[in-house]
Amino acid sequence: KAGVTQTPRYLIKTRGQQVTLSCSPISGHRSVSWYQQTPGQGLQFLFEYFSETQRNKGNFPGRFSGRQFSNSRSEMNVSTLELGDSALYLCASSLGTGTGGGETQYFGPGTRLLVL
Amino acid sequence: AQTVTQSQPEMSVQEAETVTLSCTYDTSESDYYLFWYKQPPSRQMILVIRQEAYKQQNATENRFSVNFQKAAKSFSLKISDSQLGDAAMYFCAYSGRGSTLGRLYFGRGTQLTVWP
What is the DSSP code (8-state) at residue B99? Predict the structure, then answer.
């Protein structure tokens, strides 16, 4: 089975622009979670989608949004980019069959975003 | 709120030796899951091992094993017969149920260096 894929892998934007990142989960996985990784804050949870619905959301401003399509692919969008948004953005997929937690999340290679 | 603490920012080990990475967590939940992920320089997050809190038996995966102490809320990772390829950042992660659905809480990581 192919793993989680993320596009693009690298991105350079300027302040004030917006950006859209894409994540394709492992075939058969219905849950996609997004994380931001920075040296200062570590790994922080952005949101999680299951069956096109956002089930959980972290503590990020409204500039960060996401969506999931019927084929489970997910996108996240950041509007009005700030310098502090420079980070590695990781997505992870899991089966999403349970109502409880604990499912193993499988991560993509990440998108490295640099905001100038 | 759930918190995960890794008190060792850096560790080093000689090739073929054994090393133990520490992790403690704080939660009020009784049912949860714990994970160790490794992140090599490629930044791809890779699952190392998973532990279900209701299971008394410590999880093992080849050279990797955990020491899970539920009462002490401790979850350490032991790497036996260390190899050069084990060099990476190791993250301890927690997953609960209910409101934390689809979300992993990560520690700040331990950078492991393996010396030949």
Answer: G
Say how far apart CA B55 and CA B58 lie, in whole Å: 8
Asked if B66 contacts B48 with a C-beta cutoff of 8 angstroms, the reply is no
The C-alpha atoms of residue A83 and residue A104 are separated, in whole angstroms, by 32
In this complex, which of A48, A106, A112 lies closest to B102 when CB atoms are compared? A48
How far is the CA of A39 from the CAs of A2, A43, A69, in angstroms? 29, 9, 31
Contact flag B100-A56 (C-beta cutoff 8 Å): yes
Query: Which residue of A42, A56, A106 is in closest CB contact with B101?
Result: A56
Interchain proximity A109–B42, CB inside 8 Å: yes
Separation between Cα atoms, residue A87 and residue A38, nearest integer Å: 5
Contacts of B50 in chain A (CB under 8 A): 104
- Please name the residue that has the structure tokens 């080849």: B62
> Between chains, do A45 and B52 touch, taking CB under 8 Å as contact?
no
Residues A3-56 have pLDDT tens digits of 999 999 999 999 999 999 999 999 999 999 999 999 999 999 999 999 999 988
| List of chain B residues whose C-beta atoms are within 8 Å of the C-beta of residue A101 | 32-33, 95-98, 100-103
Could you count the other beta carbons within 10 Å of the beta carbon of residue A77? Answer: 13
Chunked in runs of 10, what are the mean pLDDT values of chain B (116 residues)?
A: 93 98 93 94 94 89 95 96 97 83 92 97
